[in-house]
Design brief:
The chain is mainly β. The chain folds into four domains: about 15-185, Sandwich (Jelly Rolls), CATH 2.60.120; about 210-435, 6 Propeller (Neuraminidase), CATH 2.120.10; about 525-825, Methylamine Dehydrogenase, Chain H, CATH 2.130.10; about 835-945, no CATH class. Helix content is about 0%, strand content about 50%. The strands form 19 sheets. Strands 71, 73, 75, 76, 78, 79, 81, 82 and 84 form a nine-stranded parallel sheet that branches. A hairpin with a 5-residue loop joins strand 37 (about 455-460) and strand 38 (about 465-470). The chain is globular. The relative contact order is 0.07.
Length: about 950
Amino acid sequence: MTSPLSIPVAAAVAGVLALLPSTAATGAADAESEPGNLLANHSFEQVDDQGQPLDWSPVWASSAVAFSTDDGDASDGERSLRILDDSSGAGYGLAAEPVPVEAGQSYAYGLDLNFSGGTLQPTVYFLDANGERVGQESTTLSPDPGSWESSSFTMVAPAGAVEAQPLVYSSISATADGLVDNVRFGAELPEEAPGVEESLGEPIGGITNAGAGYTQNAEGRDIGVVVAGGSPSKFSAVDLVTGERLMTETIEGSTLTWAYATTPDRQVYLATASGQVFRFDPDALTLTRIADKPFGERYFWEAGSNAEGEVFFATYPGGKILGYDPVTDEWQDFGTMVEGNQYARSLAVDGDDVYVGGGTTASLVHLDTATRETTRIELPAEHTDEEFVYDVSVAGDTVFARTTPANTIHVYSVTEGAWVDTITDAVGLDVSPVVQTSDSGTVRQEVLVPKIGGGMVAYDLDTRERRSVSVDLGGASARGWSVQEIDLADFPGASLVTATSKAVFHVWNPQTGQTRHVRSDAAPTPFLIRSLGTGPDGNVYAGGYASPPGIARVDAATGETELLRGPSQTEDMVAHGDHLVAGTYPGGRLYVYDTTEAWQNGTNPAAPITIGHGQDRPVAFASAGDVVAVGSVPDYGHLGGALSLLDPDSGELTVLPELIEDQTILSLAYRDGLVYGGTGIWGGLGTEPTTDEGQLFVFDPASQEVVHLGTPVPGEENISALTFDDDGMLWGMTANGVFQVDPATMEVVRQQRYFDVDDSGAYWTTRELFWHHGTLVGQTAGRLFEIDPATMEMTTLQTGVQNLAIDRLGNYYYNRGGTLYRWVPAEPMPRCDETFTGTHEGPVRIADGVMCLEDADVEGPVSVAAGASLVVSRGSIEGPLTAEGATTVQLRSSEVTGPVSIHGSTGAVVVSDSTVEGPLRCTGNAQQPTDEGKANTIGGPSRGQCADL
């Protein structure tokens, strides 16, 4: 069995994991696993002679598991597991024996809980063929005390996974006291759904690296390392002189990597935005994971190393500094730097001194790692209202701290204990290491500072003078710095090296002033798809974490994609007349694209319209009469999103800040002159909600007033999606269910809960609900589903998915990470006006209506006239099949001995699981013919729209 990561614990902690006999039990029982459950001994009934449950092992700080003589309880069988964790500094739990899984398959993990109090964090490790962890999924549960209840969550096995190891685990930072029983893990298989899934590939891809690392191998080869952020991320090591890629490796389960640090032994440590920590060896060209979410921290912002080789990391959401000693393989938790700040956003290391920049209230802290003492360095009075100290650098006795959003670098003298200078319009991310320069004809001690809009200045540490230098990143941020001896002419001695977010490396020599740049061969990766929307043309548009930025347009007829260069991270979009209106992060910008004209970034769409008023992410859109209604998330560290009304023709924008106090508008719908909105309790990252439940409101644009506000589903944090049906009834969706509201009374008339997922980790986007051809189609909790509104019965079509859009042909689009998929619903069987079975001799002409051939043999040609329809199931036709202007032609599990020609059909064309002994030709049909995922056998050539069937 592969054990989870072991973290040395500074002091012993108390905790109990005990098996309890049921008070109703009369004897031991060997409970068999329920169908579909992969776990052995899922109910803890089987034990060894030491009282240990078979097929389970203690993990982390857990004590040995033993039977308790106390009275107990069980939800299944005769025994249950008691977890008593009274420490907020360690976690306790059991790990099951690994079970086989299939990458890409959706799995469900469930347990029965009866807790007196506290929190459980059920976790699943995914392992590769070598037993190495390639992914991890978890959720947080805080059950109501006093009774048994069942909880579950779903996940998708990542690429490379061959086994899963479920854990019953209490988190490091929380306590727990309760019973666990009937643990379940198995494949979540959707019921047989009518339709077929098609992969449309990765419409948005490229390379964007949040940071970069630098080193040399033993032969002196200069190496740069970057991680292309995406889904999944890809690590590359490249030659800094030639740009040649030396190696690449996929990093599963992570989308971004900011933190890099090089130790004196030339090893590069990097930590991802998903909590994974790796070590790169430049001699062996290997990447090794050394930790996963140490001390529960799940997002790493920056890293640095001292001369002793100790590595320090700045984290979120604990706002902590963590230390790692490669010699002892031990971690230290130096704690939260500023109480209330979830972000330790930046750090700079100088021996035992670590300077830490924080947010979402800007802060600068000095940490003495030898004594563990922290001292807050107060920012200049005029900048205390900033959100972040986004970057920190140290050079000798000078500290550089860039605050945002002002983008001002404040210069602090350690010896004077005072702020001594400012550098405005600095782009970040850091200033360079200090180097001795002589390119100006004067010997100076200087650091380089990238500037907004382009250019670079050198800052003299002694005189505080600044001058322009030859290197220019074009206004881009410097993604890490290093001092390297580059073996090139005109680059004597040590040179400064940095990179941009496109893995382009720049070198500047402080003696000659020579500069060069090389575009590296770092491996690109598909970018995570952030949003999907349907345009006025009925095509689907996809927005993502693109670099260079843009929106992908998907042709509904062919499924082909085109990347339209322009807007960056698109949070949501909506069709309004002939316009597509999209909102992007950061800065709350709105773009208007006229789909009747060619895309020309900067002209169509023109320059963006900024919401302002402290808004950062436009996440909810609705076409509302003459305007587009927009709901937005505020900046980091703030609550209270705005409702904005945009006139796309004039560009006029009306903003109503914090329409619903301390809540963000997550969903919008419009009908009969009123805007309907759903809210969530979460605001910008880095702040805690002050409310408990999502609200439903009605806004009257004429009076500019909220005319109704209520809680449709008590206990749910978000109202994530809204839509109207054909009868004017309003439907809404939460993380776990669907509800119907009568707009006349605003009363909830129907409600159904389908799932039981933790809502707190899902911010803002990816959930959708549509009324489509008499059916509710939606996506939440990772499921694509349809709901029959009459019975409220749900049919799950796919699992492990995000986002949803529907094209003009009625196909559903969704994504898994950076891959886009299309679900083509099976065409419903038309109502038959006439049905033939048995054998028919001679030709058949269908002049009107719907003719159905079921288990029928036609010994002659068949023709379908304009407006008529033919549906063949398990039949045969001896002769040609010809359709000209038909409504629909559907051929399933059948055989045609002659040619087939289908032209100009106005409805669906289906040729599925069938044999055509002659040629197959389809032209001019309104919908792309489909095989519904079941291959055909075609004896002759396939032409036109049927070329791929």
